[in-house]
């Protein structure tokens, strides 16, 4: 008899839930899955590091998340910030030539214009006029000595009866009779006369010719000026009566008190225009050239334009050491003065710390990308990740304003590169 038994049938695509595969088969499956994970991870690491990042050795990898930007051609400008101080500049002593006791001083910060009183000495005003030549002599009508027809002795006695010849250069005289005569006024001349007469006319006193001669007409105008000031009408301007400056001035810190004698530092002044002074490092002051345009950030955050007008020629030693670089000492500095043409742009601010921005280096018509687009290559250097996931090696140049100059055989204008997140 044939042996019989029970037969269980299964569909081809099903398997009993309680049926387990042989132990050996299950172990092999687990090992294969683990190996697959390792291979995928290794490929991802190679792509991220950019191994073989040159164009000829580019490595493709799944693109990473991040924005895509084009390589552009532009001009890059390197800008550097330095600290500065807003103010009216260095205070300079006024060249007061009057002698006596100081009887009145203006307030610090006051503005003095042409014809105004700077100070009073022995209760006599010392006035401001505009000009570049300092007052070095009295200005007025002078008298030329008269020589008598018969000559005169050193004592002034006439030498009658001698028949002495008159001087070879006699001056005009009036009167009759030998040994008598009167002095005739003769004008003094010079550029200082022209400078003074220009100021006198600007103050509204006319009736004379503005030239290099101090004439009777000039003296009459001076008398009218003196009368308006409450002074004795002498028609002569003393050497200590006026002080010249290039324009109106701002009074600085007084160097004397009321009642003290006039000295060299009795009164100081500055210009009335606000400016910035930068103590620039002597070793890195190549940017400080007269006429260089700079940007100035004021304490309130507002930006204004400035221009370098002067650079000191003598370096100041740093605090706490010498310019040779003693231990603990900073770098020696040069004072750089910067003017602000638009004074209204500064507002009412008179002083305070500011930031000065100047252009260091500049490159024109170069390829550039945002600095964030650079990636470090495993073999060294930098590269860019293309839109399709390749890595291209590049050479970097100037970094400026968040962008960087790039070059290389694999980079071109308009190429899309990725900024990694």
Number of helices: 3
Briefly note the structural class of the backbone: mainly beta
- Helices and strands, in order, run as HEEEEEEEEEHHEEEEEEEEEEEEE
Quick check: average pLDDT? 79
Total number of beta strands = 22
**Multimerization status:** single chain
Supply the CATH architecture of the domain at 97-138 and 186-270.
Answer: Orthogonal Bundle
Tell me what portion of residues adopts beta-strand conformation.
25-35%
pLDDT < 50 runs, ≥5 residues: 1-63, 143-180, 322-328
How would you describe the shape? elongated
For this structure, the CATH topology of the domain at 97-138 and 186-270 is Muramoyl-pentapeptide Carboxypeptidase, domain 1
Question: CATH superfamily name of the domain at 97-138 and 186-270?
Answer: PGBD-like superfamily/PGBD
Keywords summarizing the entry:
421 residues, mainly beta, conserved putative lor/sdh protein from methanococcus maripaludis s2 fold, Muramoyl-pentapeptide Carboxypeptidase, domain 1, Elongation Factor Tu (Ef-tu), domain 3, six-stranded antiparallel barrel, four-stranded antiparallel β-sheet, 22 strands, 12% helix, elongated, disordered N terminus, PGBDSf, Peptidoglycan-bd-like, Peptidoglycan-binding protein, PGBD-like_sf, coiled coil
């Amino acid at each position: 008899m044939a042996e019989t038994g029970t037969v269980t049938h299964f569909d081809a695509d099903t398997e009993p839930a309680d049926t387990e595969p042989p132990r050996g088969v299950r172990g092999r499956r687990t090992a294969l899955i683990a190996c697959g994970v390792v291979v995928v991870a290794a490929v991802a690491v190679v792509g991220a590091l950019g191994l073989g990042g040159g164009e000829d050795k580019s490595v493709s990898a799944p693109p990473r998340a991040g924005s895509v930007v084009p390589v552009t051609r532009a001009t890059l400008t390197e800008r550097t910030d330095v600290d500065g101080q807003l103010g009216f500049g260095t205070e300079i002593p006024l060249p007061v030539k009057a002698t006596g006791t100081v009887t009145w001083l203006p307030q610090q910060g006051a503005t003095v214009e042409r014809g105004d009183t700077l100070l009073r000495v022995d209760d006599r005003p010392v006035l401001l006029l505009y000009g570049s030549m300092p007052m070095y002599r009295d200005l007025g009508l002078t008298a030329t000595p008269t020589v008598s027809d018969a000559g005169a002795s050193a004592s002034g006695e006439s030498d009658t009866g001698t028949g002495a010849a008159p001087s070879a250069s006699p001056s005009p005289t009036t009167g009759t009779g030998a040994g008598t005569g009167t002095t005739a006024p003769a004008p003094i001349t010079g550029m200082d006369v022209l400078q003074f007469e220009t100021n006198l006319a600007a103050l509204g006193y006319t009736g004379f010719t503005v030239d290099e001669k101090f004439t009777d007409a000039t003296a009459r105008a001076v008398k009218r000026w003196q009368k308006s000031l409450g002074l004795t009408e002498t028609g002569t301007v003393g050497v200590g009566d006026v002080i010249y400056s290039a324009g109106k001035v701002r009074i600085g810190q007084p160097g004397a008190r009321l009642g003290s004698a006039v000295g060299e530092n009795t009164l100081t002044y500055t210009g009335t225009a606000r400016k910035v002074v930068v103590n620039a490092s002597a070793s890195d002051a190549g940017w400080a050239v007269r006429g260089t345009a700079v940007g100035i950030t004021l304490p309130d955050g507002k930006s204004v334009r400035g221009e370098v007008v002067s650079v000191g020629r003598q370096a100041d030693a740093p605090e706490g050491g010498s310019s040779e670089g003693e231990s603990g000492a900073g770098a020696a500095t040069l004072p750089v003065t910067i003017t602000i043409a638009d004074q209204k742009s500064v507002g009412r601010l008179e002083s305070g710390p500011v930031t000065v921005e100047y252009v260091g280096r500049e490159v024109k018509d170069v390829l550039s990308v945002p600095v964030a687009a650079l990636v470090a290559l495993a073999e060294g250097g930098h590269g860019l990740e293309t839109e399709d996931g390749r890595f291209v090696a590049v050479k970097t140049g100037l970094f400026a304003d968040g962008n960087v100059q790039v070059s290389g055989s694999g980079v071109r204008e308009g190429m899309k590169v990725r900024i990694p997140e």
